[in-house]
Amino acid sequence: MADTPARLSPLTAAVAPAAGRIAHWSRLYGGARALAIATTAAAHRGPVLVVAADAAAAARYEHEIGFFAPDLPRFNLPDWETLPYDRFSPYQDITSERIATLSALPSLQRGVVIVAVQTALHRLPPRAWLEGRAFHLRRGEKLDRDAFRRRLDAAGYRAQSQVAEHGDFAVRGAVIDVFPMGTDSPFRIDLFDDEIETLRLFDLETQRSTDEVDSIAVLPAREFPLDEAATREFRRAWRVEFEGKPQDCPVYQDVGEGLAPAGIEYYLPLFFDQLDLIADYLPRDTLVILDESAQAMGERFGEAVAERYEQLRHDVERPLVKPARLFAEPAELLQGLMAHACVEVSGLSSDDAAGLEFATRTPVRVPIDARAAAPFALLTDHIARCDGRVLLLADSLGRRESMLELFQQQPFRPRALIRGRNSWLPMRRSASRSRPCTTAPSSTSHACRC
After folding, report:
1. Do 50 and 115 form a contact (C-beta atoms < 8 A)?
2. 5-38, pLDDT tens digit by residue?
3. CA distance to 126, 212, 341, 342, per residue, from 286 (Å)
4. Phi and psi, residue 48, nearest 5°
5. Is 113 a residue whose pLDDT tops 80?
6. Is the pTM of this model over 0.90?
7. Distance from C-alpha of 388 to C-alpha of 228, rounded to nearest angstrom
8. Is 144 exposed, middle or buried (0-12, 13-18, 19+ CB in 10 A)?
9. Nearest-angstrom CA–CA distance, 325 and 343
10. In 199-213, which positions are buried (b, 16+ CB within 10 angstroms) versus exposed (e)?
């Protein structure tokens, strides 16, 4: 008979498995998955990549891991939020976050990176290209305004009269405003002759300068190049890829003129000889966490892409790149990820004798029956049988106050908590509304004894 897998508390960091195989972490119900990931990521000597089943699950992981490990750096690789082969481009803020995450990944030493599986299946610009297109500006160094403007143009930045969003820049004599990708604020460069005198942040609304900084990093404004060499390569690749007259295709004409038409992201393979996957950006010591539904959702996404391709591929003015050149199969993505330590997390028990089962249980349902003689009987009984602390969560501050009023006459009287820097702290309330806890809250359990 197989040995029973070891039981581990989600508050205890798990040991990363060896690369080349997928280990299994099971019996992780609800928020216990994020807790186990956060605990392990905090102790792991390297970054952790979480591949979620979809965008909603990715957002949930980001929120929950931030709750359990607020000091742990978190990165999100967002989806373009467009349908495959759409004639729309992603918002600049989305592109900014994507480029910032991809630029940070190769040198990331610690933290959690979260991505939905459908986003992870997108092929990406080569890592070497992205690293080679980033540059820094430092106070006191020389700067040729004309050369800098050409460099911004080549990196995909747009010349404007006033900076308004990521990817904009404006030149006004000795003052250059630029809103680099991956930053929260735009920067103002003040020149004295050809020397950078000051580098300051400024406010988009008032256009007033604020804090001064010593240096800024300027990342590419797009996930593809648009300089003369890139447009020449694009046109060559287009003629190889598609039949017919390229002059009849608006996308071909726009790129030839140095423009980026809407939806150009779905022609990414025509800018590069070879594309990368997210696995190619990961440091060697990365721990990969796969949601149990990720592979199935990845296969479903592939089917949706193929269906969309069949619907749209007959437009001769806008021919489509074949899905295999834009998206990876789930098996190809998994093969790349398995060069690192890989773990699949699930709520069910695992048949893997070498896997880890966590000491968690399915949540107990304790509904309140307003028409019963004792509406809170199930909740009261559950709290009485618990030998640890109990945490009651509310959707909002207003709902929390309603719950406190509702529970005022019950044997258990929860005490409201506020979030402290390193722990959860009791919130002072009047004696008429609540009774103090007999035990102080724990920073580990994030709960109080009621």
Report:
1. yes
2. 558 888 899 988 989 889 999 999 888 999 999 9
3. 19, 35, 7, 9
4. -125, 130
5. yes
6. no
7. 66
8. exposed
9. 28
10. bbbbeeeeeebeeee
